[in-house]
Every structure is written in structure tokens, then in C-alpha cells.
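Re-run with default settings, no changes from the original entry. Doing this only to confirm the output is reproducible before filing.
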Amino acid sequence: MKFKFAALPLMLVSAIASAEQYNSFTDADYTNIDTNFGDVDVLSVGSQYYFGALNTLGPRKEFSYILPVSNIYGGVAHYDTDGSDADMLTVGGEYFTGQWKVSGQIADFDGYSVYSAGLGFLFTPNLLAEVQAVKAEDEDTDFVFRGQYNHQLGGNDYIGFTAEIDDDLDQRSVSSKYFTALSGGRYFTAELSLTDSDDTDMYWGGEVEFYFDENTSIGAAYDDNEDYELNATHFFNRNVAAKVAYGSNADYNDADVFSLGVTVQL
């Protein structure tokens, strides 16, 4: 018993030392979508900078469910289809002061703009509630109410929940994510989402990811529209990762989706 208590501080120091810290995340991706209606090629670059360091939970791409850290982000994407093309630009940010959160975003898709602004309140570090106003060009303003709750299970393990509803009460969604550390330096995540609206039947989707270690993972996703995706990520060092994914929906439009990308974390 004395040995166990004496070793505990050393174990905690080791766990803390193994955690990485990052402030910025940049992704460059290429996606090809092959459907019965034609091909679409998408090139995108996006970056997000946090004004405080984020601590990993073990895997280099896993962080806390709620991140109350001020940040700015932006991205561009170019869509090339048969005979036409389009561009999308997105810029935004989140500002936390005390328990309050203020957010804003502008998205422009080939001249069509959507603006959003939000106000949130952190009741505790694990409970966030917010309201977001969304104004699309030539459309009325919609309001979305959202709540997030993170329940710690021990160590870095957690289960998080997000619930969302619009001001007309005609669309509702809830999602959850589970993260746990396994033996031997391995990790596992599982996600489930449910969306219900007055215009469509309830829609669900799920995703799992298994980490062989902090650097390498494989994942799979599926939903009740018979969409599926298989993906993999590998960090070559603490800063650079490659990712690849393949998805399909043979039931809807015989779509095949292939993507390849690079992530840089600093």
C-alpha cells in the first residue's frame, strides 16, 4: 500500500508530461466526389488559432469536449465541377471573457453570404448554453439555441452531450461523444447524433475511432441514409499529420467520395 501511494505522484507527473499543447491548427485537403450527376473536385485550406494553449487528451488530435478559449479562424475552398466552378470563404471567431462567450462568422459562397452571431454563458467549465442568430442573404433571421454538457468519467475519459433547437421548434438535434483511454496506450471514441424535423423523418448517424497510439488512428462512420466512411490519420511527428478517407452512398446517388489531406498543429 505504501508503494502504491508513493508511485501515484510519479504516475501523475508522467501523464502530465506526455500531454502535448497546441495553439494553431491548419488543414489542407483535396476531395473528389464522383456521382451519377458528374464529378466535383474540392481544394480547401483552413486555419484556426487559439489565444491559449490546448492540452491533448493523449491522442494528438483529441481535446476537451468544451474549449472555452478565445480563437479566430478562416478558410477558403474551391469547387470545380463539370463546366463550372465556385469559391467559398469563411472567417470567424469566438471570444471568452469570464463566463461569457461572444462569437461571429461570415461565410460567402460564390457571392451568396450567410452571417451569424452568438452569445453564450459558461455556467461551469462543463456546461455551456448559447443562442446564435443566423442571417442568410435575402432570408429572415433564424435563431438557434444550443446547450453543451461534459461529464468527466475519471482521468481524461468523458462523455459529452450537445442539444440544439431552432426558434420555430421545427428542427431538433442531439449528439454525444464518448472518449476513453484503453490499456497499452490505446484510445477509443464513439459519437452518435439524432436529428428530427417537421419535414423529414428522424435521422441518425454514428462514428467510431480507434487509436493504436497517440499518432495513428482508424475510423468508420455510418448513417441511416446508408452513407458510410472509412478514414485513417497518422502523425509523422508532433506537428504534421496525413489523413485519408473514402466514403460512399450507393443507395442515393451512387456517390464515391475520396479525400486526402495534411494537418499542421503548432
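Confidence is low (pLDDT under 50) at residues 1-17. The domain at 19-265 is CATH 2.40.160.10 (Porin).
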